[in-house]
Write a structure and sequence with these properties.
Elements: H1 3-14, H2 20-28, E1 30-33, E2 38-41, H3 47-88
Antiparallel strand pairs: 1-2
């Protein structure tokens, strides 16, 4: 079942149209599928694939955060060394 189908079912159950911004996100945001090698509209993604994609994106984001922190730590160490060298002169 795709996200678009889920939104349609929800609209039927709630007896009202989905929010405009929800529809805009579903129709205008894409996820790049590495296995298929193409962008997939969120509206066309199956719910289980969407949830996996979010999980993977969060893992990637956490890795990027870790790498960024390592760069910051290295820069701090370099600055401390520079300050130490300047104080020695």
């Amino acid at each position: 079942m795709t996200l678009n189908e889920i939104i349609e079912i929800q609209a039927t159950i709630d007896k009202r149209k989905p929010a405009k911004d929800t529809i805009e996100v579903l129709n205008n945001q894409y996820y790049y599928s590495k296995s298929k090698g193409l962008n997939i509209k969120l509206a066309d993604m199956h719910i289980d694939h969407f949830l996996r994609a979010i999980k993977i994106s969060n893992k990637d984001r956490k890795l990027i955060d870790i790498e960024t922190q390592e760069i910051i730590n290295q820069q701090k160490k370099t600055l401390r060394n520079i300050k130490r060298l300047l104080n020695e002169q």
